[in-house]
Design goal:
five-stranded parallel β-sheet; four-stranded parallel β-sheet; 2 domains; globular; 12 helices; Rossmann fold; homotrimer; alpha/beta; 34% helix
Chain lengths: 337, 337, 337
């Protein structure tokens, strides 16, 4: 059995298929704790330093929650507060100091490869929570976990699936990382729907092709949604030269219930890394889809907690001790229903 | 016995007198934990998400402390960090995601009715920590709790009291909400002292009159302070067009020990929602009152913790299990003296 | 045995040599918890309010970590959020309220003597985490602890040492406070190396002389490093009129391995309060020193956790109960190797 203890989690490229399977299996074991059927205190007294040098409510809270759900304490740093860096301190030095205050570190930083640089100075495992345009491995893992768990009722795995990626495929970090992971699986058919100017980068496409996958590239939604999974994305306005330029592409692939019924299979599952842009000019996933069981976007967000719990458990070497540290839930909750 | 478990706490209007009594009774049971005579771990392992989209040190820390005092973990978000909203995400979506990371949520937001809108997407109880000019129900509850506990040594309840509200009654959210709650009681006499331009809104006055209460409206402090409770407030400068306009009204009703001795009863209790403006031009409550036993303003602030503990216990359905989860205090403290 | 329980920790001036010895002795007892050989839950359920009205990642996280390592909860306030102060609230009032939400408070504030003023309104112990140019007592204590622990393998104490202070001795708050503490010891030789314009203030020098210490003042590094301890500091650019003025002095006393081998003793220990400025124009301590065992700068930073744990234990009166509340570590860690 492969071990992760003491490892940094920096990139999806560091995993082979066996490693991914292990992470997803441990993630699934976290479900009863996140669903509040019982509690787990395996990391009671351990300290996570949650370093978000670039703000992100969703990812930051998800990491912190995941650690609390295993019983640990969370110390947190948000935003441009880290004046030491502006006083000329290297990331290596910052890592030496903060890792001395931590049992594990989750870190987001606006600069590409900064988390890897930081990890070299750290005496404890560092988990990459996003380093600019580079990597966001926990998002890719939670996406893969979601695909697996949503397909499971249909007795499908990840091999042989048909997945449609849609929207701003040029700038979307999540679809790039997910594609890297899909290269580890067999015979996946991937339809890529985007405006011509926002097509998936060539290197991502060729990696999928080299893995033996069928890739279809189109700028038409109609007729191209009869798949197992639709992965919708947001126009990443912050990566465009101007709002006006982003406006050129917004709203091209709005999906609503009518389009879903017309183009999708009965069981097609809808995913989205969130936030979804619900303003009328974008309306990536219409709110009329909210009552559709196959809309998996909120389950997908919750799965982020499971995957992050799994990574904490694995890097701290407690993945086999979860049951020994279980306790009952003492309060009222609707989650486990 | 009425139950609150699973409920959102959005407005004082959702409570009848029985509900209020229940909240105040549970609040009183929290005293030994807050006073450090013993600890309570009834919410050990539970997670509060403390979402302060509008900053507020006092209220935010009070909610977080209340949850820690019951043994729970606190995840926190402060300020305009929530960029997802600026990316077009609806409050409903934000609530779906964050509630998946929480057992209960406390939320402050600058926009009126935003907390209610948010609560519709939440799978866990949401407690309103203030939504703009609209509501701040926990402040009103702690005010009422303070009135009750301060009057108790004089064998008085809330019925039949004489309460004086003073200052900026037009903009003060706390006096509006407190007045709503007082409408549930009998035969309260309410004196309202304010500059003519800052009088209590008509709808608040008529609601009190309709409840059978006597309301006296005046712009004179002299001769109008012989009451049970004085509730002093701050000129809410941030609601005026300019500092100059606010300056017109500042310092009109400064209360100091001399005025207290001249106009008040021997036992008149002084309250204030804090912060009190102690700059010379305002000096709402002179510091020469600090050694007066009847100055209840700091006890009032502490009572906020008791009321918030009670609301957490009630919405999470553990109000009857407190004693089962008690533990002794292991450290030195002066609080329980 | 002297007691600290209930005391505020505001200044190094409040300690005599016996008090310092006690703090350092308790700090040493914290090592197994910080090194993760075992855990200590002596402050389980206690609440630290970590009030950083001036941001500081390193010191803030260190205080929070120290409290978590003893089992306690941490509530945190960062930056200029404290709008109550801007609404005219006195530090006394803020302290009355926040101390009601706390078992102990750590506070940093940009204004000199503000923490002392605050402490007068607090019902719980307040630990000064830095009040502007005035004091930063926990830094001075951790520096002294580091000197003691680094010299211990050589069977040296603090008496009779030769310590070299280097860099911006005019503005460096840490070298001022450390000098105050050194005045309590015997026969210390202190070499002060700085540009002429950035010499140690006269009052600090004369306090050391009055304590019977030998003080050597120079602006030459060559020939003046054959000592027990080198305490290097950063040019405090934020205290100069302009970056240009600070640039005049940057890089004058860069220490690298070549200079170390040429001028230092074989066992000379290098300290630095961090952050070290590693930009080429400053390069206070070259990274080629990183593999030198005698480079103590990161151990020094970790020692901050030990000292802060000790101060929490002492002010809360639990320093004799640590062993009763020990538990094993359940997760994988490299720290205790």
């Amino acid at each position: 059995m492969m071990k992760f203890q003491g490892d940094h989690i920096l990139s999806v490229s560091q995993f082979d298929r066996e490693a991914i399977s292990r992470i997803l299996a441990i993630s699934a074991q976290m479900t009863p704790y996140a669903m509040r059927q019982k509690r787990c205190l395996v990391l009671e007294g351990a300290i996570l330093n949650n370093l978000f040098f670039e703000p992100s409510t969703r990812t930051r809270v998800s990491f912190g929650t995941a650690f609390n759900l295993l019983g640990g304490f969370v110390r947190e740093t948000v935003g441009q507060e880290n004046t030491s860096l502006s006083k000329g301190e290297s990331l290596f030095d910052t890592a030496q100091v903060i890792s001395g205050y931590s049992d594990v570190i989750a870190m987001r930083h606006p600069k590409m490869h900064s988390v890897e640089e930081f990890s070299k100075g750290s005496s404890v495992p560092v988990i990459n929570g996003g380093d600019g345009a580079n990597e966001h491995p926990t998002q890719a893992l939670l996406d893969l976990f979601t695909i697996q768990s949503e397909m499971s009722p249909f007795n499908k795995g990840i091999d042989n699936l048909h997945i449609t990626l849609m929207g701003d495929l040029k700038h979307g970090r999540t679809v790039h990382s997910l594609s890297k992971l899909l290269s580890l699986y067999n015979n996946v058919k991937i339809t890529m729907i985007s405006p011509k100017a926002l097509q998936m980068p060539d290197n991502v496409v060729s990696a999928l092709s080299n893995a033996g996958h069928e890739v279809i590239i189109t700028d038409e939604m109609a007729g191209n949604l009869a798949c197992d999974i639709i992965y919708q994305t947001r126009i990443q306005q912050e990566r465009f030269a101007s709002k006006d330029e982003a406006d050129l592409y917004r709203g091209h692939f709005s999906l609503n219930k009518e389009a879903y019924k017309q183009y999708c299979k009965e069981y097609t599952v809808i995913m989205h890394p969130l936030p979804r842009d619900s303003r009328p000019e974008a309306n990536e996933l219409d709110t009329d889809l909210n009552d559709l069981d196959n809309l998996a976007i909120f389950r997908q967000a919750q799965n982020g907690v499971l995957v992050r719990m799994a990574l904490f458990a694995l890097t701290l070497g407690v993945e086999d001790k979860l049951q020994q540290h279980e306790k009952p839930i003492t309060w009222h909750t609707n989650k486990n229903k």
